[in-house]
Fold:
Amino acid sequence: MQSTHSPGSHADKGFFGHPRALGPLFFTEMWERFSFYGIRPMLVLFIAASLFDGGLGLDAKTAAAIVGIYGGAIYLAALPGGWLADNWLGQRRAVWYGSILIAFGHLSIALSALFGAIAFFVGLIFIVLGTGLFKTCISVMVGSLYDESDVRRDGGFAIFYMGINIGSLFAPLFTGLLMDSMGWHWGFAMGGVGMLIALLLFRLWAVPAMQRADVERGRASTWDAPAQRRRHVGAIVSLCLAALAALVALVATGVISIDARAVAEAMTSVLIVAAVGFFAYLMLFSGLNRDERIRVTICFVLIVAAAFFWAAFEQQPTSYNLFAANYTDRNVLGWDIPTLWFQSLNPVFIVLLGPVFGWLWPALGRRHLEPGSPMKFVLGLLLAAMGFGLMVLAAQQVLSGPGLVSPLWIVGSMLLLTLGELCLSPVGLSTMSGLSPQRTQGQLMGLWFTGAALGNLVAGLIGGHVNAEEIQQLPELFGRSAIALVIFAAVLLLLVPVFKRMLKHHRLIDPASAHRADAEAIVKTGV
Structure:
């Protein structure tokens, strides 16, 4: 317990006016994201590349499905990872063991040049398991730096997330150059170097800095121990890992054959059924009152909208990547732009436009013009649809022209996708925490990440169709994504007035109405 004579978090301003320990956590996350985004766009290209070119020689559909499974599993692993941290490991050990697993994963992928495809896929499994432990827990550690009354918390997370964008911006630039100049495995190894730096920063800088901060504040290091220590968790985890190892051995020896597309389709179906079933459970058996059921229903509709958006947005490492590699004129003054460099466009736009949106919504709010969260979702879906509309035009040019199109098509499309992301992603996280009932906040946040996992799986299934055998269907492929986004945006637009009637004067649903209600209350009370 914090002593009444000990300084609170307000007194610690050692990192840009924020607690000193935020610095090492910022750089740890930056390098971990460098490692993740350094190899993610390489995956589909490596898996689909011929054996002669050093790849795995699988077809584009299988390659994209594998990337979709990988992306979906990354999101889903955060759920058991967070539970293990709370009930067995604690945040520090979860991040540390997660870092080690991710580092082993990168090493295994890099060594696939010597040991073949099995080492590559074992590496992906290690990264999924490690990220499940690392991702949620380091965010919890950032939150523990601030007292409940510390108003700098949101600003601290804004700085922390900037580290994510910096890492994802520079990673494809470095790995792309190494991949083009020295080969696939040098690019993969560069991602491993990033994770090794993150691991060392956390162990040698972040942990001591947080321990010093807790000593100065006279409080226990709650992040260094589980919230509650459940029995037999270690044995259960060991059994699960043994079963996973046995499955890998059976696949490696050819006893079991796995169809990646079938697995992706099955995972998609299971997640849809599980999400709908869990929504029904919340509505019927969790003891919610009428107002809480309305809130949960609106949150669920927005989660479905987000899943549609992510199914389009997460085609960047699959559809867009393959389009950039095979159908885009990347030659500038005799030099070929590395394919992976296009994957840096999204974080570049985030860094440039994020502050603009941070200013825009409050500015509109001061003029009572800010749209509610559902309308922001509508804007996000429509902007993403416009981005895919540009890709339809680009695909038509591929068919009617010389076969290669200007890179500005992808640049313009990814700009629109990023604008859509800024309208939807941060708004969605805020809405899940601000609209959901207190007793279901964690569960609805889990459903939010399930929607993101679904989007990754669907994006993987779609992305594999960007290949030479189906080039005539390329405009239709991008067109279907655009149409699906427009249709759901229209459905959501029709539901907006319904939501406003269901939750009158709620700031997240109808900010203007909420302001009018506040003004009327002030007039009535004379305050």
